[in-house]
Amino acid sequence: MKQLALIALLGAAACGGKSEPPTGPGPSLPTTTPDPTATTEPTPTTPTAPPPAKGNPREDLIPRSVLLGNPERGGVRLSHDGKWISWLAPVNGVMNIHVAPVGKLDQAVVVTKETVRPIRNYSWAYTNKHLLYAQDTAGDENFHVWRVDLAAGLDKATVADLTPSEKPIRAEISDLSDKVPGAVLVTLNDRNPQFMDLYKVDLATGKRELLVQNDEGYLGFYTGAKLDVRFTQTKEADGTTVMWSTDPKAKPTAPGKLVWTEFQRIPFEDADTTSLLGLAPSEKSVYFSDTRGRDTGALVEYDLKTKQQKVLAEDPKADVQGAMIHPTKRTLQAVSFEYLRESWKVLDKSIQKDLDALAKLDGGEPTVVSRTLDDKTWLVATTSEQKPQEYWLWDRKKQKGTYLFSGRPDLAKYALLKQFPQEIAARDGLTLVSYLTLPAASDPEADGKANTPAPLVLLVHGGPWARDAWGYNPMHQLLANRGYAVLSVNFRGSTGFGKKFMNAGNLQWGKAMHTDLLDAVAWAVKNGVTTENNTCIMGGSYGGYAALAGLAFTPDAFKCGVDIVGPSNLSTLLATIPPYWAPMVAMFHTRMGNPETKDGKALLEAASPLNAASAIKKPLIIFQGANDPRVKQSESEQIVAAMKKAGLPVTYVLFPDEGHGFARPENNIAFVGAAEAFLSAHLGGTYLPLTKAEVSASTMQVKEGRSGVPGLDGL
Question: In this predicted structure, what is the pLDDT of residue 54?
């Protein structure tokens, strides 16, 4: 069962919220050799808390490598037969897949050979002798699908590209099924860069069979248990989603050309909060996350013959989010909703005692990561806002958990901080679900109430059609450890809170989406979290745009800004989207503004920080990946050029081997080191200076404004 989620235009980049147990480092970003003749470098102010001396770091400051470097282990999975356990772990600093017999972790063998880019996610095929992962080059997001073959033994594992091509292409895994264990469905745009065709690929031979030749702009495919194609969807110019169905028994009119019939039309107001989740076990009905006739996305079962629908689960404040599905019966067993924190509604009482017991394992929140096909063994990760993932094997018959390991054992000796959900009222009455982390000195009772104010970092999520969530967040922990209060706000347009909240963000870039952030800062001042004019705005992707907009449109609202791969000109952003996003362009136009109309173009120009760059008067640092396919390098360079032309200071840091965010831990650590030094100089917390080893291990290039980052001189 597969959910076709709304694709966030800008993604989470370096500053995101909740995710599945992480498989790689946390946040990340870039730098270059500065021009020694430049005269536009910002002059740092004196930090309120002096930085530690080089070579003598304060013991209470958590090292960047511990929080943000590679985990010791991550991405843990069970094979479907329960005989093998796998995980990602660094080999010469690069995350690779390790496999061991269950119960014999000391016999693990590295089965992949990546030497530059980390593997960030992977899956077991149902053969139990193949693993699959995607890999791009230097962050360009031109992913290929790779197969690891374990048939000859772990020590003789071979790796092959299932989607080879001499030209840039993008391939994605679409589906796997235990009913067809020897195949994987892959979408691929090697025929037409704009459209993704669907192929069935034989795992043993790599031979492809074309299932759908996509000449109509289809967005995603839904398949049955036997990997037969059943549904797809398209977008119309007004943002309407049209769902299409096909009869799996009907013969194609030509290779890859199926006969499609219109199934349902979903109006724009519901189009991105309503989605087909997949087929029910009988394949006579389908599951939807559906906001039609209601505000929040309910779990609905729709009978394909009678066209009757039944609501299975709903929440008045949150959309249906996740699901537990039986590994062979494909029945829905539980679904989750997340408003302030995640909660589960159990539909199948046979798993209730398991979930109750898992909640008591170690006090953390459990996530069932893998289940064997016989459903006797579960792999479980537990976590909380103060603890990264710890992994357990759960024996369902014995109702007993066996502890495996921690993903980041080195963090155990540091005191991590609590994170507190907040409901903040926007000026028009909308409720903004937000998350606050306070430094220990401000909140010694750890009750979420500030005894003394601290400088505030407003950490803005990417997307913007995404959300922040409660849980372990390494950027929150690092910034709070350095003396800052950290606030993440789900501004209007964020997902998960119903269609009214999401649609309230339409055409509001630089407008109400921005005033939501200002209202959150005002709340923080009113509640003693911080003081007036003592906030820095920081974010990745859309959050980077928010940082630029904050400094350009409200130049007195923030003390400084940190832009991570953020767009500066919305018109050029939309003109340079990846070709395979072409079928979704209607969604961008209806939610952001249509550059093909006079009013839409004017709206985009007015919301572009580049056009107000001369108004920026507070310190700004910009981080960019040179190979970013979503927010091109030119988005950063054009605002840097505009500021230099106006004689304004700016620091610009480039990573030549990264894309939309920073995957390599060496670059991630260098980015965060530069960012925390910048914050210390302009907002006043403390920091751990970058070392020569950290800088030389990265590809960071400080292109402009080296003096805006204390401690870089001489490195």
Answer: 38
Q: What is the pLDDT of residue 644?
A: 96
In this predicted structure, what is the pLDDT of residue 9? 55
Residue 319 designated active-site: no
Most distant CA pair in the chain, distance: 74
**What range defines the domain where residue 529 resides?**
413-708
Cβ(240)–Cβ(262) under 8 Å? no
Same domain for 420 and 454, yes or no, is yes
The pLDDT, as a whole number, for residue 37 is: 22
Catalytic choice (406, 434, 541, 680): 541
- Going by their DSSP bridges, the two strands 456-460 and 485-489 should be labelled as parallel
* Radius of gyration of the chain measured on its C-alpha atoms: 25
Q: Is residue 367 part of a domain?
A: yes
What residue type is 330 in one-letter code? R
Active site residue 628: yes
Are 561 and 547 within 8 A, CB to CB? Answer: yes
Phi, psi at residue 148, to the nearest 5°? -105, 125
Q: Are 584 and 666 within one domain?
A: yes
Q: Are residues 303 and 378 in the same domain?
A: no
CA dihedral 422, 424, 430, 435 (to 10 degrees): -40
- In this prediction, residue 11 carries a pLDDT of 55
Pairwise CA distance, residues 667 & 698, whole Å: 5
| Per annotation, catalytic residue among 488, 628, 657, 698 | 628
Which is nearest to 620 in space by CA: 680, 678, 570, 673? 678
User: Which single residue is written with the structure tokens 């398209």?
Assistant: 234
- Residue 636 among the catalytic residues: no
Q: Which residues of the chain have pLDDT under 50?
A: 1-8, 12-57
Among 285, 660, 680, 682, which one carries the catalytic annotation?
660
pTM over 0.85: yes
- What φ, ψ does residue 333 adopt, rounded to 5°? -110, -30
